[in-house]
């Protein structure tokens, strides 16, 4: 009996050690990404009574993760005495830690009948890579992705290891799997094979039971999808439109993947994991071995499909960020494994790699002097820019130009109502103010980098994202020329901004270049065709009739793109 207790205790230690390393690493590199502040601004809009929007004047889905935003709204509301920035950082770190612990418990369950003494292998990969540390505390939804993957894997492993005695647990597991698209829409690519694995693990099912599992899995994502279309008049988040998530960009994607694999020499742990997987596959067959193999194949297969999607769309400009969930999922079935001669040797072979990854290797790309593929170490960039080793709160960003501009915009919000400016560095400079089309409208500022600026400007200021993440017009402009940095390839020129926000007779300052003919063409284009319908759908009061109309727009206008040149756009949208 004492030996059994010792084995269980040792197993838990092997689960806890990588989790502790991940937490220590995340704390040592704690920060909040500029894009993380986008989420915080949306949270403050909710608290202000404006709903989950970017600007109070229009319903645009600027956040990528509905579930992450909901957690921030609730947790931040409960902990109002704690700065929201710290709530986001702490939640991300906690989610990452619990996710890794759950992944380890999933692996332990998958291999439970092959031995009780455990050794960390896959968990060591996650714990040792600093990119995992960085995005655990970034204010983005990455930590929540790890939590969902880990708990889903654990729930599936349990389902595969037990004989079904009822439907309560399978329905709960199906509901958990259905949350994937609410963590990130692209995680639907992982959720689907996991749901299939669940159906295989608990078969045979009657038609009624099958329908129950499908309904449990689909209830939350389908309900939110209906809300998205009715509220935002869009089939997908606005960020997907801005980044052209349906288009292929294989060249940039392969560069992104090569940067991730090459920086951390992932061929090394990949080879180790193959050896471990083969060794464990030759173990003694068990009664539920087939179902467990299905779960393993589903997790790894879903991860590889997700990684392929990330490569297809061109990856991201932040080093490793979008490939971390797939990396996490690929190693999940072998996070911890039974301690055998082969697996112990594999763990030992990983130790030098882990030490090098944690202490020596690092991404090198930086904006302005980075590699041609444009992949950058975003954390290092902002730490250097802010002059702070751990930039988290808005105050930590101190003299960063966008932070200074955001504070000045907030200070000008009351006296500047009914005005528009393009002067991001100093929105309070009255010489740059342009009379707005609506004199009672909030103060508006056209910005390139919206995160820190938008959060500090506050919900009263309309922050016009000319790059498109938060703007319903810029996001729908057609890409021109060669592909560039994801999320930064589009730009609404001043004519579009003036057409939407400036009074018809307003004269912009000389530093704002926009021909009157272009402004007039943009103003006409904004009122024509599907684009005009979309703008009306997201700016007018949301009545039941408007919601029904928006549902139709969401279904029929997801592929709407128009020329970046206002004159050409007017011809396309208005005809003639």
Structure notes:
By secondary structure, the protein is mainly alpha-helical. The chain folds into two domains: 328 residues, no CATH class; 181 residues, no CATH class. 58% of the residues lie in helices and 3% in strands. The protein contains 25 helices and six strands. The N and C termini lie far apart (86 Å). Keywords: Membrane, Transferase, Transmembrane, Transmembrane helix. InterPro entries: AftB_C. GO terms for molecular function: transferase activity. Pfam families: AftB_C.
Give a short overview.
InterPro entries: AftB_C (IPR058983). It is built from 25 helices and six strands.
Supply the number of structural domains: 2
C-alpha geometry: globular
Main sheet overview: 4 strands, mixed
Helix content: 55-70%
Uncertain runs:
368-372
For the record, give the distance between the C-alpha atoms at the N and C termini, rounded to a whole number. 86 Å
Spatial strand order of the main sheet: 4-3-5-6
Proportion of beta-strand residues: under 5%
Please give the number of β-strands.
Answer: 6
Number of helices: 25
The assigned structural class equals mainly alpha
Give the oligomer, counting copies of the same chain as homo and different chains as hetero: single chain
| CA gyration radius, whole angstroms | 25 Å
User: Overall pLDDT, averaged?
Assistant: 91
InterPro entries: AftB_C
Domain Terminal beta-(1->2)-arabinofuranosyltransferase C-terminal: 439-558
Organism: uncultured Acidimicrobiales bacterium
Keywords: Membrane, Transferase, Transmembrane, Transmembrane helix
């Amino acid at each position: 009996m004492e030996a059994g207790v010792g084995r269980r205790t040792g197993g838990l230690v092997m689960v806890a050690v990588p989790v502790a390393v991940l937490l220590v690493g995340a704390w040592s590199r704690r920060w909040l990404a500029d894009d993380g502040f986008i989420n915080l601004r949306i949270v403050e809009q909710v608290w202000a009574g404006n709903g989950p929007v970017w600007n109070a004047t229009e319903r645009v889905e600027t956040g990528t993760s509905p579930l992450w935003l909901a957690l921030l709204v609730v947790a931040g509301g409960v902990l109002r005495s704690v700065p929201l920035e710290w709530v986001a950082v702490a939640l991300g770190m906690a989610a990452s830690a619990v996710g890794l612990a759950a992944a380890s418990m999933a692996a332990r369950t998958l291999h439970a009948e092959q031995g009780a003494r455990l050794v960390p292998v896959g968990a060591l990969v996650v714990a040792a890579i600093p990119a995992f540390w960085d995005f655990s505390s970034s204010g983005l939804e990455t930590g929540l992705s790890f939590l969902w993957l880990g708990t889903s894997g654990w729930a599936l492993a349990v389902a595969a290891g037990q004989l079904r005695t009822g439907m309560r647990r399978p329905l709960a597991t199906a509901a958990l799997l259905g949350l994937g698209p609410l963590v990130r829409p692209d995680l639907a690519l992982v959720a689907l094979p996991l749901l299939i694995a669940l159906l295989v693990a608990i078969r045979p099912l009657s038609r009624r039971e099958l329908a129950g599992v499908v309904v449990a899995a689909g209830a939350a994502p389908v309900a939110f999808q209906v809300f998205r279309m009715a509220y935002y008049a869009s089939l997908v988040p606005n960020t997907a439109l801005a980044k052209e998530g349906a288009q292929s960009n294989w060249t940039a994607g392969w560069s992104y993947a090569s940067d991730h694999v090459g920086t951390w020499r992932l061929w090394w742990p990949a080879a180790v994991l193959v050896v471990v997987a083969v060794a464990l596959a030759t173990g003694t067959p068990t009664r539920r071995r087939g179902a467990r193999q299905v779960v393993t194949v589903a997790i790894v297969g879903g991860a590889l499909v997700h990684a392929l999607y990330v490569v297809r769309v061109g990856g991201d400009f932040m080093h490793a960020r979008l490939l971390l969930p797939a990396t996490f999922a690929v190693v999940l079935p072998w996070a911890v494994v039974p301690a055998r001669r082969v697996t112990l040797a594999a763990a030992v072979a990983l130790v030098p790699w882990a030490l090098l990854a944690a202490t020596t290797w690092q991404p090198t790309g930086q904006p302005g002097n980075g590699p041609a593929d444009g992949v950058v170490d975003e954390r290092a960039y902002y730490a250097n820019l802010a002059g702070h080793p751990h930039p988290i709160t808005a105050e930590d960003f101190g003299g960063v130009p966008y932070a200074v501009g955001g504070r000045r915009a907030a200070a000008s919000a009351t006296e500047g109502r009914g005005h528009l400016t393009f002067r991001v560095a100093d929105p309070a400079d009255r010489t740059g103010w342009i009379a707005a089309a609506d004199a009672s409208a909030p103060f508006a500022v056209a910005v390139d980098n919206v995160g820190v600026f938008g959060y500090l400007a506050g919900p009263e200021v309309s922050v016009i994202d000319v790059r498109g993440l938060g703007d319903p017009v810029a996001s729908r402009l057609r890409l021109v020329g060669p592909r560039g940095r994801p999320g930064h390839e589009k730009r609404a020129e001043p004519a579009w901004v003036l057409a939407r926000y400036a009074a018809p007779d307003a004269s912009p300052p000389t530093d704002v270049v926009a021909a009157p003919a272009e402004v007039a063409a943009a103003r006409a284009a904004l009122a024509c065709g599907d684009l005009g319908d979309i703008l009306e759908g997201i700016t007018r009061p949301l009545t039941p009739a408007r919601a029904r109309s928006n549902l139709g727009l969401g279904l029929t206008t997801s592929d709407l793109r128009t020329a970046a040149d206002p004159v050409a756009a007017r011809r396309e949208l208005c005809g003639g």
